[in-house]
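Input sequence (445 aa), recorded before submission:
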Amino acid sequence: MIALTVTGGLLVTGCAGAGGSSGGSSGDGESINVLMVNNPPMVELQKLTAEHFTAETGIEVNFTVMPENEVRDRISQDFANQAGQYDVATISNYETPIYARNGWLHELDPYLEEDTDYDVEDVLEPMRNSLLGEDGKTYAQPFYGESSFLMYRQDVFEELGLTMPEQPTWDEVAELAAEVDEQRGDMKGICLRGLAGWGEVMAPLTTVVNTFGGTWFDADWEARVNAPEFVEATEFYVNLVREHGQAGAAQSGYAECLNNMTQGNTAMWYDATAGAGSLEADDSPVKGNIGYVPAPVKETDSSGWLYTWAWGIQKASSNTDAAWEFISWASGKEYEELVGEEIGWANVPAGKRASLYENPGYQEAASAFYEVTQQAISQADPLNPGVQERPAAGIQFVGIPEFTDLGTRVAQEISSAIAGQQTVQEALDKSQEMAERVAEGYRDR
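Predicted structure, token format:
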């Protein structure tokens, strides 16, 4: 994979130290171009923008909406070239520090200092910290965020006489999955992602590796992918899904596990906290029957991941004042209130603001899971997710440009092991060679 680097001059404009348009107030026929992923909260945002944001500010917003893989490619191309075609784009806490390092993003701190109504201190601290650059400055603001937790069928556990611990260990989860399998022939014990992809199987598996004491790289950039702890964690994960997981696990990702849980085919599911909204939707067959507990652990106190879709402003944008006004609105408290009142509190883009978790309307709509979700996000520590020092931030990923390629290739080996085409040791020995090639480039710097 080609490292994300940029050389040469970048267009820099000045306004309040953050760059901007010609100055003065925004509006008056201005327009901005926004490139974003086509997730449901983004689609709802698009529907609300003209009637509310544009009507209030006079700023037209031209949206380009694309699937995740396509939008990532388009954003990286446009921001790397500093073409300025898009003023604002959805980027995650994986891309933000990398893009900031390459000089592709506008610093947002001057806007945050002046825009007191935005109340940046209300944004959950782990989310704020995950969007900082290496220089400690802020380069994006979250639209919504998530961690991971364990979801389980409370009614089935009660029927079978099983008890879910308040903070389960992975060993306890494996025992519970086996019990369900033994007593319920129509239901599997657990659903876990097995689909190849750095954002599919590697996301939950890496959290298991962390809590088992493993890591992709140690602090000295030594690859540790076939080290005993990494092997133990991966063998545990692969054996659990092969013995007590869903059919076709090697082709199952987030969507497939969500469907299995919704249709009553599985008793437990470890995955993103965002899944709870779908399970508790009005048309969900399992609404009201799901319990939620923190991500299972082994050697660490917590193990939930941290992810956010956030808004970043391209450095080459000539409309940064208007771009900030859009971000301030789309990530602000008033927008959450708007969605809650017009679409429903269950549809609010959650996971980023402390005030939302104190809102009675949201608490009622998300009563089954909001406290566990907030706890999971608050406990997430991208700088120290395991038992040893790391050379790069990240919980379910390693915060380096090469990880998208490395993680995907390793995921293919893991999926092959889940499918029974090779052993875990064989998969990780091949993966170690890939990781060592990446590590060499960092040790030589």
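Checked by second reader. Confidence is low (pLDDT under 50) at residues 1-27.
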